[in-house]
Amino acid sequence: MTTAGSSTGSTDHAPGGHAGEHADPHGWRRWLFATNHKDIGTLYLWFSVVMFMTGGVLALLIRLELFQPGLQFFQPELYNQFVTMHGLVMIFGAVMPAFVGFANWMIPLQVGASDMAFARMNNFSFWLLPPAAILLVGSFFVAGGANAAGWTMYPPLSVQMGPGMDMTIFAVHLMGVSSIMGAINIITTILNLRAPGMSLMKLPMFCWTWLITAYLLIAVMPVLATAVTMILTDRHFGTTFFNAAGAGDPVMYQHIFWFFGHPEVYIMILPGFGIISQVIPAFSRKPLFGYASMVYATAAIAIISFVVWAHHMFTTGMPVTGQLFFMYATMLVAIPTGVKVFNWIATMWKGSLSFESPMLFAVGFIWVFTIGGFTGLILSVAPIDVQVQDTYYVVAHFHYVLVAGSLFALFSGYYYWAPKWTGHMIDERRGRFHFWNSLVWVNVTFFPMHFLGLAGMPRRYADYPVQFTDFHAFTSVGAFLFGLSQVYWLFRVVIPNVRGGAPAPPKPWEGAEGLEWTVPSPAPFHTFETPPLVK
């Protein structure tokens, strides 16, 4: 892809541009009133880092309790609050905002736009998140403590919780509104602000995966809002949506929740697929193999995700015909997902490979995500799922997808684009140290959980029989070392990279392609005020 006529660094405003009311603002006003997509992307990324560390502390408190059998540190009620809030903080506070931060930073640069389409709405969508985070974390300090009904908030337990449950409901509403506004912004930017000559089938894969993810967000976030609002009215306004004594049905909540919940899983992984689809061609020095099939596979995954929700509910007594439908529909997802994995490997085949930190995390992602995908395929088989339902096998599966999957993709993208964000190259030795520690300890943490689950260890239990001790101890040690690896990443990679380092050229990676590499590093406050021409 070649470009001509790109303009960077100017403080003049392009017609219709939204670079901000003032050129290059400084101080706290720059961040509070930010309308520049780069500043808002930075805010999202730092917010997600803070929430990632918060959720990580909760995870380590869980593993601390489970290191030995018996109740060591926490009562089961508090333990269940840790489990619940760990899930909510990591999903809505860490993974989703991190991908939105990447979208804010990179989509305008990749499509040749001067900014996101709706700059003030972009600001508002971010500033809804800190109050939501305060509601979530603050719920630990109200009477009765935080929500302890699981991140899924199943009734009747969620109807019986204290005021911490109401705080969770309002936090989920705020985060949902933020997600919907962000999705509208992303769709409008990609469809309407592309540079001249950039057809849809010339879009970078990261933009394609985010375009499809944004449609998923608009479709399913109102469903979650509906479910938690019904819980709220059951709790305070005398309705009985989920109360069997009033002709309600708690299983109906599960159907509504998982109609949101399963597309949500793909909301948290599809942008990661896009990042990996950018990184692997760059370090293979080859175009992405099967670009069109990757686009169609992404769309197929998104469409199929709407008809598989009840595979989370095989033990609720659904008829055999329902089990068969959801079993086969779930297996169907493996086909477009397999297309993606095949295309990534085919891209590397006979390429001129080099293994800098972004590529290490991308290759690591393929391996660990594929493990998570295969265990998901096993769980799709209804008779097997009935046996391992709500055991540590399920915990192992979704953590391989979300920790080893989404998180590794985010790290790959961070190492790939950070030179463009900060203007400094990352110390490669530190990046490799972070990668190898993360790869080893993530497997030490989560792989033994498969065996725990197959042996019958239920999840969300603060205590367990003595025969599970060794695997739990092994897992807890891995979790603490994985956590320390991320502390190392923050203090020895991220913060030093923001403060300084070797200057980054406009195109620090030899095989990288795309408009983002035509602007200086760091990317100036205003870019592409004269739209580049894509040939």
UniProtKB/TrEMBL annotation:
Keywords: Cell membrane, Copper, Electron transport, Heme, Iron, Membrane, Metal-binding, Respiratory chain, Translocase, Transmembrane, Transmembrane helix, Transport
Disordered: annotated span: 1-22
InterPro entries: Cyt_c_oxase-like_su1_dom (IPR023616), Cyt_c_oxase-like_su1_sf (IPR036927), Cyt_C_Oxase_1 (IPR000883), Cyt_c_Oxase_su1_BS (IPR023615), Cyt_c_oxase_su1_dom (IPR033944), Cyt_c_oxidase_su1_bac (IPR014241)
EC number: 7.1.1.9
Regions that span the bilayer: 43-62, 82-105, 126-149, 169-193, 205-232, 252-276, 288-312, 324-346, 358-382, 394-417, 438-459, 471-491
CDD domains xref list: Cyt_c_Oxidase_I
Stored PROSITE patterns: COX1, COX1_CUB
Domain Cytochrome oxidase subunit I profile: 22-535
Subcellular location: Cell membrane; Membrane
Membrane topology term: Multi-pass membrane protein
Pathway entry: Energy metabolism; oxidative phosphorylation
Signal sequence range: none
Family (UniProt): Belongs to the heme-copper respiratory oxidase family.
Protein function: Cytochrome c oxidase is the component of the respiratory chain that catalyzes the reduction of oxygen to water. Subunits 1-3 form the functional core of the enzyme complex. CO I is the catalytic subunit of the enzyme. Electrons originating in cytochrome c are transferred via the copper A center of subunit 2 and heme A of subunit 1 to the bimetallic center formed by heme A3 and copper B.
The protein's name in its UniProt record: Cytochrome c oxidase subunit 1
